């Protein structure tokens, strides 16, 4: 792995750890969904159909569904943005199904950028959970 990959991996695990540790209920559930996606992705990566990694696409779909459900019921603005960002990532899989000969590294790079956007939104979510009056009103630790 390159230094950039190590750095992005460090940012990911640090963000997820803080999200699970300091977040309130919705943040912890989102953190759990992100941890599951991060953990399961390498396990399903070998599942391919016509050169498209359908296992990873399925994880992307499941994460989009989880974040969308949390956005609808979690009462957090950052979850709306996170669900939208994940839906953009999901759209890149649809494009790859439609055009399997597309530049693979362009779509992979795009998904890495989207993942880092999710990490930035998660950090914003921590601030929202701790500072927003509607988030503090809940009786969660």
Task: Write up what this structure looks like.
The mean pLDDT is 87. 81% of the residues lie in helices and 0% in strands. The longest helix has 28 residues. Helix 3 runs antiparallel to helix 4 and helix 4 runs antiparallel to helix 5. It is an all-alpha fold.
List key phrases describing it.
81% helix, mainly alpha, single chain, 6 helices, 141 residues
Q: Low-confidence parts, pLDDT < 50 over ≥5 residues? A: none
Q: Tell me the total number of β-strands.
A: 0
Q: What is the C-alpha radius of gyration, as a whole number of Å?
A: 16 Å
One letter per element, helices H and strands E, the order comes to HHHHHH
Largest sheet: none
Shape: globular
Q: Span from first to last CA?
A: 38 Å
Average pLDDT for all residues:
87
> Pairing-aware structural class of the strands and helices?
mainly alpha
Give the helix level as a range of percent: over 70%
> Count of helical segments?
6
Approximately how much beta-strand content do the residues carry?
Answer: under 5%
